[in-house]
Specification:
- The protein is mostly helical and 320 residues long.
- 84% of the residues lie in helices and 1% in strands.
- The chain has helices spanning 17-47, 49-52, 55-83, 89-122, 127-130, 133-161, 164-168, 175-178, 182-217, 222-254, 259-284, 287-319; strands spanning 87-88, 170-171.
- The chain has a two-stranded antiparallel sheet.
- The protein starts with 16 loop residues before the first helix and ends with a helix.
- 32% of the residues are buried.
Amino acid sequence: MNFSIYSNITQTKREPYTIAVTKNVIIVALYISINYINGTLVHTFLKHEIFNENPRYILFIHMVINDMIQLTTAVLLNLISYIFYTINVSFCFFLLMIALFTTLNTPLNLAGMAVERYIAICNPLRHMQICTVRRTYILIGLIWVLGAFTILPDLFFILATEPLSFFLSTTYCNRDSMFRHPYMVEKRNISHLVYLSFVWLTLFYTYFRIMFTAKATGADARKARNTILLHGLQLLLCMCTYIGPLAESVLISLFPMFVNDVRFTIYVFVHILPRFISPIVYGLRDQMFCAYLRKHLWCVMLNERNQRQTQPTTLASVAF
C-alpha cells in the first residue's frame, strides 16, 4: 500500500517544475473539493438529530470522516514527497499509521453497513432492538480495534528490531521502506486476503438473503439490493489500494518512459477517486439525507444573499 507516489524518486528522473506544480495543484484542488463535500455531509449529520439516532447514518458518516482522514494523510504524504523528498522516520511512521488505519477501516465499515441493511430487510421486527445506537458505536470501536491488531504488531516488531538511529534518520516515506522485513510483507498479504474475503462473503450473503426474502414475502427490496451492490462497487474501489502497487509496476515495465505519469495516474485512481464517489453514492443518493442537505445548502445561500443585500446599506450608513 504505497501512500507516496514518488517514494522512489531517487530512481527516476525529476520532473520539470511546471509539471510538478500542475500535478500538485490538481491533487490539492480535488482534495479541497472532496473534503468540502464530505464536510457538508458531516455538518448536515451533526445538525439534525434524526441522523444521530439512526445506525445506518452513523455508519455512513463514520465512513465519510474516515475517508476525510485517509485522503488528508495521502495528500500530505504526496506533497511531502515533492517538497521535502525525505522526512524524519518517526514522523513518517506516524503518518503511515493513520493512513493504514483508515484504509483498513473502510472495508469493515462497508461490511457493517451491509449487515445493517440485511437486518432491516430480513428481520425488520427486531431491527430496532438489534441495531441500536450504542451497539453501532461499539461496532465502530471494534473496527478500529481490528485495525490495531493488524498494524500495531508490525510497529512493535520494528521498535524491537531497529536501532534508535533508524528512527532519528530521514527517509522517503512509503510503506515499503518502513515495513521492509519479509515477515511483515507476508503478514500484510495474508491480512489483506482475510479482510477482503470476509467483507466479500458478508456482501454476498447479505445480498442473496435480501433477494430471497424479497421473493418469499413479495416485498419490494430493490433499493436494499441496490445498496448492497453499491457496497460491492465501493469495495472494488477499495481493492484498488491493494492492487495499486502491482498495477504500477506492470505499467512502468510496459511504459518505462512515462514513469512519473503512471505513478500520478495510479495515485489519482487509487486514493482520490474512491473518496469522490463515496459521498455521491451514499449521501446524495439517499432521499432523506439529500433532502436535509438541500435544505441546508438553501439556507446557506439565503444567508449569503441577505448579507450581500445588507452590506451596501451598512456601508452607506457608515459613510453618512
